[in-house]
Specification:
The chain is of the alpha/beta class. It contains five helices and six strands, in the order αβαβαβαβββα. The chain has a six-stranded mixed beta sheet with strand order 1-6-5-4-2-3, with helices on one face.
Length: 234
């Protein structure tokens, strides 16, 4: 766990444990159609990733943490979203040596014109394609008891499950269509005591922010592997 937290660029907060899990979790609705202002039918992409990387010379990168979906968990903080964005850049640097990403913020998409605005900004930055990464998630929490049942050391707490969805796409700026789209999910669990142990215990909000970012990171890593299939080697 500590290694994974260090990958996110955050310290380990005492009093909670973060674990990868599987099982019954809340589904997450895809957010890219709403962000780009496209119907689900127009989001369907069936092409092979390896067919596209040689077509473009310049690439932009936008990342979004969206909390507007049904029963959505809060967005990842700007600090940890920046860390995840840098993880995308580092992945391309090491796995796709011929590709440099020009990072810029996602324009306002709440008016249903995300794709139009994004193409406009991409042209201002002189890029032919844009890598879009959208993070979203749902959460559920339940009461829990930690410690050995036969011992007198059982302590009350909570377990929070975060189901992350990461949508990645490659936008052809000139044509205004998605050349590639990859969707991945991951689930992380946070066990936290009701009574803090140690003087440096982080806040519940800090712990949940890390949980959301960690789940997003797991889904991101899986998605990047599929998105970059066939890209030029480093």
């Amino acid at each position: 766990m500590n290694m994974l937290l260090r990958q996110l660029g955050v310290g380990c907060l005492t009093g909670f444990l973060m674990l990868s899990v599987s099982g019954c979790v809340s589904p997450v609705s895809p957010r890219m159609p709403a962000v780009l202002g496209l119907s689900e039918e127009l989001m369907d992409v069936t092409s092979n990733p390896s067919d596209h990387w040689a077509k473009y010379r310049t690439f932009g990168l936008v990342t979004v943490s969206d909390a507007t979906g049904p029963e959505a968990a809060p967005a990842v903080s700007s600090t940890l979203l920046l860390t995840l964005t840098r993880r995308v850049e580092a992945y391309f640097e090491h796995q796709c040596g011929g590709i440099a990403l020009k990072r810029f913020p996602m324009p306002d998409f709440h008016a249903g014109k995300g794709l139009i605005s994004l193409r406009h900004v991409a042209r201002q930055h002189d890029v032919e394609a844009v890598i879009i990464v959208i993070f979203s998630s749902t959460e559920s929490m339940e009461a829990a008891t930690f410690g050995e049942a036969r011992m007198m050391t059982q302590m009350p707490g909570t377990t929070t499950y975060n189901t992350a969805l990461v949508e990645l796409a490659l936008l052809d700026v000139a044509e205004g269509r998605l050349a590639l789209r990859i969707v991945q999910t991951a689930v992380e669990r946070l066990d936290r005591l009701n009574v803090p142990i140690g003087s440096d215990q982080g806040t519940r909000e800090e712990a949940l922010d890390i949980l959301r970012a960690q789940a997003g990171q797991q889904a991101l890593d899986r998605g990047l592997e599929g998105l970059t299939h066939g890209c030029p080697s480093a």
